[in-house]
Amino acid sequence: MTRDELRRKLQQARAALSETSRRQAADAVAQRVAQRVTGQQGVAAIFLSFANELDTTPSIDALWQQGIRTVLPVLHPFAKGHLLFLNYQPDTPLLNNRYGIREPRLDCRQVVPLAAINWLFMPLVGFDQQGNRLGMGGGYYDRTLAQWRRGALPRLQPIGLAYDQQRVEAIPTAAWDVPINEVITPSRHWQFT
């Protein structure tokens, strides 16, 4: 199965989940996210859900309750295919980017460097037991993780957030793919070495 075929299959499985299942999954993941950061301080980058992704609203609330500063990804206005991360609070004004994903209005004073981020909670379409992840195909997170892969961001801890149904036996990989060490699903906190 090609990456595109697998992506379509997993997106269809995600879209088929009932509203009740989605809510329960989002709440269960939020509890695991809270456990992951309990007793720690730092900055968490997290995404706002889009197109049947796991709802991150409960996880964002859990981070705020833990006193964790949160930032959201924003499409970089000058470096195509790259992300910036901006501070996010309950009253932060949001806009739809060119993909229809909500993000903070670009304000250079609110940019947080990747080196200052402790946890990078990422969306994914699929993942496997080796920590390989399948995203939407734009490569934004692979580019973001390139420095981490080289060891240049020692404090950064990339963590995927997904439904249990998004785990597969094996993800076909490409040279630019960056595997991650952790994925949180409703039923489990997966850790890969």
From TrEMBL:
One of its GO terms (molecular function) is ATP binding. Transmembrane segments: none annotated. Its cofactor is Mg(2+). Its EC number is 6.3.3.2. InterPro entries: FTHF_cligase, FTHF_cligase-like_sf, NagB/RpiA_transferase-like. ATP binds at residues 3-7, 133-141. It is an enzyme of class 6 (ligase). Substrate binds at residues 48, 53. It holds the Pfam family 5-FTHF_cyc-lig. It comes from the Bacteria. One of its GO terms (biological process) is folic acid-containing compound biosynthetic process. Keywords: ATP-binding, Magnesium, Metal-binding, Nucleotide-binding. It catalyses: (6S)-5-formyl-5,6,7,8-tetrahydrofolate + ATP = (6R)-5,10-methenyltetrahydrofolate + ADP + phosphate. Belongs to the 5-formyltetrahydrofolate cyclo-ligase family. This is 5-formyltetrahydrofolate cyclo-ligase.
